[in-house]
Every structure is written in C-alpha cells, then in structure tokens.
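# nightly structure sweep
# worker-07 picked up a monomer target from the shared queue
# config: single-sequence mode, recycle default, output format = structure tokens
# input follows
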Amino acid sequence: MHGWGGDGREWSPHAEAPAGRFRVVVPDLRGHGRSEVPAEGNTPVETAADLAALIDALGTGPVVAVGHSRGGQVVNLPAVHHPHTVRTVIELDPAHGAHGEEAEQIAPAAHAPPPTSWPAPSHRTPRPDCAPPTSAPCSAPPTTSSPGRTPGCTPTRARWAYPHSEQYLRRRARRALTVWTSAEAAAWERGTRHVPGSRVDHWPGTGHYLHEEHPRRTVRLVEDWADSVTSAAA
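# output follows
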C-alpha cells in the first residue's frame, strides 16, 4: 500500500522479484491512481476496510501486508479490525505521528482555525493528518485534483498526539516489522507493546521514501520477513 499522494506504481521496482514466489497485489488507495475519488469516507479506517474486502474477494487467505507512510496506517488497521485477512504487517516509515521538531512545528498549527483548502497535492509533499476521537488517525482526502477535508477531521486532533496511534498498535494482533528513518520514532515504537516476534528497525541517513531510495534492500527485507513468518506458521 502506497502513501498519501502516490499510487501503486511506486512499487514497480519491488513487485517483480517476490512475484516468483508470492502472489503480489498492488492496489491504489481511494482517490489515488486509478481508484475512484469518493465524496466522503476517505479515512484510513475505511480504506483498510477496502483492503480487507479485496483480500476476501481474491481469496488469498491472510497476507503479508506492506505499507509506506499513510499506507502504513492502512495495513495496520486490518490487523486490528479484520485480523483474518493479515498474517503479518511490514510498515515503512509509517504515518503514526510526528515527533521532535516536527511535533513542535505541528502543535501550534493544531489550534489554528481550519484552512479553507489544503495545498495542491504532490507526490513528495506530506499532507496534514488528523484523528477523530472514535477512530484511527485519518487524513485529508487524497485526491489527484482538488483535495478537500475529511468530514470529522479537525486540526485540534492532529497526528502529533502519539496516543491515538498507540491505542491501535497495542490492539494489533499480528507480528509487525517497522522500519523508521528517525531514531526517535524507532525508540518510541520499541516502547509500545508488541506481539512477540515483532521488530523495529532504524535506517539512518535515509529519506521518507526509503523504499524508492533502497529498492533492493527493501525487497530483501520484505522477502526475508515474509519467509520467517510463513515458515513459523507452517
């Protein structure tokens, strides 16, 4: 699962190698790539329900769910709400929350009046995220032309508040491998409760699009983790 503002094509360098041994499914999130742009229902919770429905429809059985950035949010949620669809989760620099200097910059903006519109989308520009009190973190609707606001999202519930993400990570019922480009974020996630056998890695000196910077390393990571999990299940 790609991140906010991208589409499934960013996995093109990664999909061919594991396809010789695994069935590889690369969907576009709602409002991205070739997927439709609904007027509402663009939260990660609803996108995760799409993913669970797709897995059920394809009859794949539980999958190794890989997600980058916002896609990292999305692949976590089926492990909470639809655990029969997910064998394990691999998150690459997931959008769980801000930290350090980023949190300090976002916090004042969280109490500012809501903007009338978000900036024009860009493949490399992160979008503002927020979380309603009764669901997982959600983002402004990902569209390719005219981004708007997700109903129920307000800046006063911004993603810089880590507890929103912690609630879901603690409920996740599947092993997870998380790769962070931030040492601080990696330390934070290591401090949350994990299913035994989970792992948190840190790739220093790497940008947010780590899978694009290091495609071969990413493929090896995914294959090795998938092998370890499927072997353990067998």
